[in-house]
Amino acid sequence: MIIREIHKNEYKELSYIHLESFKDFFLSNLGKSFLYAYYRACLNSQETIAFCSINSQNELQGFCVGCTESKGFHKRLLIKNIFVFLFQGIIILFTKPKAILRLAKNLDKKTDKKDNGLYAELLSIGVSSSIKGTGVGKELINRFEEEAKERLCKKIALTTDYYSNENVISFYEKMGYKVFYEFTTYPNRRMYKLIKEL
Ligand SMILES: CC(C)(COP(=O)(O)OP(=O)(O)OC[C@H]1O[C@@H](n2cnc3c(N)ncnc32)[C@H](O)[C@@H]1OP(=O)(O)O)[C@@H](O)C(=O)NCCC(=O)NCCS
Known about the structure:
Blueprint: E1 2-5, H1 11-21, H2 26-29, H3 32-44, E2 48-54, E3 60-67, H4 73-80, H5 82-95, H6 97-105, E4 120-127, H7 136-150, E5 155-161, H8 166-174, E6 178-185, E7 189-197
Parallel strand pairs: 4-5
Antiparallel strand pairs: 1-2, 2-3, 3-4, 5-7, 6-7
Coenzyme A binds next to strand 4, helix 7 and helix 8.
């Protein structure tokens, strides 16, 4: 298994794996065009940490993407890429109007008084269904954590679904993540925020 950084121009390949591993999730339902824009912006940000697993044909099979400082990351991304996201916003407004409200309300996922957002955040991790359970997710998180440490991050947090998500939660628990708190995002999605001290 080869784990390496994701190149800036690999936002499409990254989006394909996202679509495959997050079927019927909110971001996936916004469509390929939005995912391209989102991951392209992430990969262009200095704050982003992004690794992938590739096979012998150099094809992406898994990915993890996160940022060094959770607090305000998505707002900074939006401001830096304002025209790209305005354009995407207009498309979504016509095709999925309710999603705009949800995007706006969930821009900042800080939802608990004890949460100051001063930690790195693992925003997304997914592996192709054909290689699930073969240790790729674990290696991706390990590399993400090493890089976060090198960039002087002290903690990593992430959010994950509360209901019907036992497998993913046990995966994170095995990787040393603990429940920080529970919260509900708009419109009514119960979530866990997990955290790990590095
Ligand atoms: C979650 C995910 C990234 C895990 O990646 P993976 O490559 O399948 O996991 P690994 O093979 O590296 O497993 C690492 C450890 O977690 C455990 N684990 C993995 N999947 C598990 C499951 N479904 N149930 C229980 N434990 C699990 C493994 O047993 C392993 O433990 P070990 O080191 O003691 O053997 C992958 O299943 C995935 O892409 N899921 C869909 C996308 C998703 O939900 N992402 C998270 C969103 S918050």
